[in-house]
Amino acid sequence: MIGNYLPRQCGIATFTTDLCSAISAEYGAARLLALPVNDTQEGYDYPARVRWALAQDELTSYEEAAEFLNFNNIDMVCLQHEYGIFGGPAGSHILHLLRRLKMPLVTTLHTVLREPDTDQLAVMEEIAELSDRLIVMSQLSSQFLQEIFKVPGSKIDMVPHGVPDLPFLDPNFFKDRFGVEGKAVLLTFGLLSPNKGIENVIQALPQILSKHENVVYIVAGATHPHILRREGEKYRASLQALAKEVGVESQVMFHNRFVSPEEMVEFIGAADIYITPYRHEAQVVSGTLAYALGAGKAIISTPYWHAIELLDDRRGALVPFQNPEAIANKTIELLDTPAIRHAMRKRAYLFGREMIWKRAAQGYMESFNRVRSDRMENPRVQFSARATPKALDRLPELKLDHVNALTDDTGMLQHAIFSIPNRGEGHTTDDNARALILTVMLERCVLDKDEWEKASSLVANFSARYLAFLEHGFNPAKVRFRNFLGYDRHWNEAVGSEDCHGRAVWALGTVLGRSSDYGLRCAAARLFESALPAVVEFHSPRACAYTLLGVQEYLHSYSGDRDAQKVRKALAERLLRMYEAIRRPDWKWFENILAYGNARLPQAMLLVGSACADDRMVAAGLESLDWLAETQRCKTNGHFVPIGSQGFYRQGGEKARFDQQPLEAAGAVSACLQAYRVTGDGRWRNQAWSAFNWFLGDNDLQLALYDSVTGGCRDGLHPERANENQGAESTLSFLMALLEMRSLQESEPVDIPS
Q1: Which end of the chain is more exposed for a tag (fewer CB within 10 A), N or C?
Q2: CATH domain 401-742 topology
Q3: Each residue's pLDDT tens digit, 630-650
């Protein structure tokens, strides 16, 4: 929550504090933070929920706060906006924070102007653009947003100002707290400023007292801090002088202090009639009026915008602006007729039950969930102010820094915290197999002089290390690979998954098929021979596909190996039978779910089918890849949208849009390039570019996954942001895809799909 916070003395601070407390009470507060704005150098003694305080007039403070929010992986930001609390013209400093946010933004508008000046118009228009949703507290605010600021109504949520859930009590219950027992109490409370119009009530008091001599008028609240710094107590002194001048000094009680929530309950509770005599109509939100309504008070108000809405249907009485006589007449009427006053109270109280803070918290959570649902179901291009610049017509430079960072003496570490290796998560055979494939690909890739110096160093230093990890991961007693190795170098299981075993065989076959390092090939050959027999019993389609990719690499160099040929035949036919058994006109796939590593299945069919001149396999590979490509394409913009890992896509169900994984994009690049090599159809080359450009920002959120600074790749695309952690799977997926794209002929024209 970005907005002022108690103990700062202002209405926004009270609102933000109450809203946070309500959300915390309703939904828990484990990850609920507040970022207020300091208007003084010394700041305020905030509670623990406040993790950061903005310096109102320091632009760098806003920029640093955005970075703080981003690296803390905040899911949602809710801005409490009012022009006057932020620095810059019309509070424009807040834009420097909002433009840098990488998560969704919901903005509550405490002020919506009918006649904004140039600066106010520009600020509000950009806030509306940067916000996923806007929350208003009155219908008129929504109307102004649509008519003046051209915000679509579908983007606006109406959540009334929250109020405490108070019992419907007789005012006499609280009057002894203020020494006004037996009196009829009129009340105005809130921070004092000249636009409050309190002088009009004081001027009305002589007429009221002529009919009801037991009336007392309480004015509760400190002078607004900004007014106090600028003018001191000039306004309060003028009110006191006026009360003395008209002879009601003893009937006007000033409580000159900031009213705490607890005191506010008592003040409102003691009131027989609550009066908001504001001088101008241009106020779309009044928290004090909302509180009085929710407490079931009889209310007299001038017809400012919020009052017109809240007091409709006889929930209160409206009197003209700057009209003490009208205030006096309405007060006398309500005091004269208790039945009318109590009926007004009841209507107000019943209406206010839908405004209690619990309901407000629910309204905010519904808005937040709506944002997340919209992002999940219908992601939209991020706002131009927050979009990452992209160059989709050229490949980025090869940068191996992050691979170096993730590799220790044991091998490739599995995860990272941002770009820092996360040693606590240890290592996996999966990632060391991928890393081994990458080093072999680097041997064969065309690199410039600088790139080759870095790549050759990595290949020379790390290839053996990754292969040694696979050797250590193989469990001869089970004839299977283990997968998870803790940082304490203890294996977490005796046998890994079939997929893990298949990836290891893929890596070993790639070494044997492509590497020029004789020692590496010899070590890989022994392990390959030991690991291959187990795969014949595998049933995972991905394990079959990964194994086929490795076996086919191996057979490129050792085509006469009959045992390897038999394994290839058995697994390829098994995969083909899976396809033919499941395939339907509207579901051209190998199983009844699209899960992870999807494109590797048609890639294996194409690779083996073309090597064996098996037309059925090639046809199955092309058909399934064509269906997958269409399934993973944005219907609106045509960009690549991999199946999300939050639920995947089950036949007859809904496609999970998020979390989108780099593994899927890399697989799509490989499969589409294999289809291009088999068919010569340029459409497949373009499909490969589309999948690769997902890494560079041609995706649902228009955010780059590849980090050109570290050379790493972010771990995925959430509905509202990229996962900033740069783990091994993601980084290796990107680098393998990059090297595959480099395999395209330089002379070929690049036709980037729109």
Answers
A1: C
A2: Glycosyltransferase (1.50.10)
A3: 999 999 889 999 999 999 999
